[in-house]
User: What shape does this take?
Amino acid sequence: MRLMDSRDVDQAVAEMVRVLAPHQSEDWRRPAGTLDGNCWETAAHVAHDLLAYAGQLAARPDSAYLPADLVIRDDASRHDLLQTAAGAGWLLSSALAASDPSVRAWHWGPTDPSGFAALGVNDS
Assistant: This one.
């Protein structure tokens, strides 16, 4: 079985952008299906998580999440929001590509790079 890696994150983020880009003229403040938040908040959450996973892998904390959060300005356009998510995905992909499989970083316990790749794919 092949472990997830940077290629999987790249593919998932590209697919997310491909699916969402044609809908940039729509109202992203409407509910996001059955999720608690709206579409804009959900996309911002994805960008936040992708960046957080990249930070965890780069810093390798062993007992907690880094005390940092990505904040997207409320006036950010849908295009800018997608670019931010894509950039955060690229940062995660880069951190994954640079990480030895033996690296561990905190995500509710020690997590290897393939675990962070899976988390990034799941969020995207």
